[in-house]
Amino acid sequence: MNWLIDLFILTLVIVCAIAAISVRDLLSTAILFGAYSFMMCLLWAIMGAVDVAFTEASVGAGVSTVFFVAAVFRTTRRTKD
Amino acid sequence: MRYIGLFIVILCGALLLYATQDFPAWGDPNSPASSHVSPHYIQKSIEETSVPNLVTSVLADYRSFDTMFETTVIFCAGLACLLLLRTFIQERGNWYYRHIPTEVTLHIKDARRIPKDIKDFERIDTLWVPYDLIIKTVCRICIPFIQLFAFYVVAHGDFSPGGGFQGGVIFGASLILLAIAFDLRTAIERLDEFKLGVLSALGVFLYAGIGMLCMILGGSFLDYSQLSKIFPVDPVHIRALGMLGVEIGVGISVMAVMAIIYINIASEGRQDEGL
What we know:
The structure holds two protein chains of two kinds. Helices cover 83% and strands 0% of the residues of chain A. By secondary structure, chain A is an all-alpha fold. Chain B is mainly alpha-helical. Chain B has two domains: 51-88 and 131-266, no CATH class; 93-124, no CATH class. Classes of the chains: A mainly alpha, B mainly alpha.
């Protein structure tokens, strides 16, 4: 049963990663990247690395998403390529 | 160009996948990491460092030198962000003030500002004009609890998951929440550029200072048990207390750097108006 949850979260990680690099709206990319980090945090927690999960949740899903949103706010919302 | 990039990416990925075959299997008890390093930490950690949390004992005692330079890296990141983004060129006068009793907005074009001691006017941003009582009230209630939790994470890092890095990030996030819910100037008033710069350096100084203090007292760098010569605590407890001091240093530095990076990105380095 445990591997099923693992597989589900891993699939979501890959979906988030592919969506984050293919979406053209940079604000959506920032949000998708936050979702990716949160899924990775769940994976770390499942593997028993609670300290790493804690760091991932606070840095990856929390603060870096805010930094990306702030950078998008001051630059442009559309990608050039 | 596109195809060359794709080719390089696929080549590197294939090489990496090929190299992973040489790794030992996940959780293999016969792998070098599990047969030499891990048993030593697991069996000797309590008697050598007397810290109940194994991760903390590795992070702040066995590998304390690494953690010190990680903190230095964080400090350098904040410094680089400040040097790259900070600008002292002010925008030409384009200020908006809200007259609070009548809710009339004034647009002031020349370089005169309304003095700060007049309480009836409130400065509002040109791009971002929040006027939301609910968000401000909820954040005003939440922020003290977030900060208290950050202190808990730092102080209880010896026993449970957490530590200086996470606690510092959570405290920095509470400052960022303040800046988002109110405006950037509210956050800057509480912790201005000078204080943040001093705090970010103070954290690294605290870490390296504890290490140097151990050296002055006759031990090796970051040998916490030497601290018992000047503090009236037995050598077993002083190790945990020395680690706590080091973690507080990491927390202070990380908190200040998070706030520096956010303030400079959100205000294009002017530290005036922002998200």
